[in-house]
Amino acid sequence: MPLTVGVLKETLRGETRVALTPEIAQKLQKLGVTIVMEKGAGDEVGILDGDYEGVNFTDADTVLAKSDLLFTVQPISDASVRKMRDGTAIAGLMYGHINKDLAAALKSKKITGFAMELIPRISRAQSMDVLSSQAAASGYQATLIAASTLDKFFPMLTTAAGTIRPAKVLIIGAGVAGLQSIATARRLGAVVKGYDVRSATKEQIESLGAKFVETGVSADGEGGYARELTDEEKQQQQAALDKEIAQSDVVISTAAIPGRPAPKIISAAAVANMKPGAVIVDLAAETGGNCELTKAGETVVANGVKIVGPVNLPSALGRNASEMYARNLLNFITPAIEEGELKIDWEDEVFASSALTHDGEIKHQPTREAIEGGAA
Ligand code: NAD
To answer: Which pTM does this prediction carry?
Structure first.
């Protein structure tokens, strides 16, 4: 029997993405895979059922019952997992240490749960890295939100009515999202500065035409990771950053530490020192915010400063975000499909590391500890 790959319509409020696009569906079919999808799965991003060639469309329960391998974007509900057959597989975002009911359901149904956020960040896996592809969408979108919230132009304008000075934009955190925010703000003509605790980002920030904020403190530790700063160093770093924040028209913060709450970098006092009308877009809103005043999903106004806490930004660019996400999934699963059947090479670190659950066991240690106190 050829492998049946299933795709549901995402149900999270505001989620527009779909885990499979027509282009990727065709590529999977060429590998000998049969595809079954829930009716209207791509509607939110303008991909209609008729755009998928050779795909069977049906209701959600039938998709769940028929799938050998289910593709999802958001973590699937444990109720849906229970409608799948024992011993099947799912690939999608899972965050099992937070979604404990999901991890427990996968375990009890002996489903192999590949959590896309656990794919190792090695160069071979870059083409499968959904965190990167979706962060690029978030970074771009964050700059557009900032530009449309600010009551000023981003570029310098020379007009008959006078010259308009360009907006000053500060991007805090120069990972995938931050670098995309910088590039977008530069394209819109703003004067851009960037900051990150990792000094390797200096060159990347400068190559995009932005200035690196020097705080006089280097957080580089062993192996390219940041080291813990002394209290004195932290104060010196924060003072330099606060000065930059106060002078900026826009601050876009993207700082994150994997698996931990977002670092607090913009204090209420720093917001009070900003110019009225200034805008903060806090990309870390969903993990607690980089700004003390951020509220996820809301815009807070404090001393005339607008603090935007957007959630699920990739959904705003759902069409392209789905295309990238689906391509990531294809690149991930292709090596495991042999003559239309799923054959996982458990020696391959990409599969071994991304398996949240397999054969009735929780494989991911932090999730295991969160649920079972560490026992395998
Ligand atoms: P992330 O979303 O986890 O964090 C965003 C940024 O916040 C990081 O650059 C981090 O250094 C920064 N940060 C953390 N604490 C901070 C603080 N207190 N102040 C300022 N900045 C702070 O990171 P990401 O975008 O997912 O990626 C981070 C790195 O991983 C990048 O170097 C990226 O190139 C690399 N990466 C490698 C691969 C791969 O090889 N497959 C894939 C993706 C990313």
So the answer is: 0.95
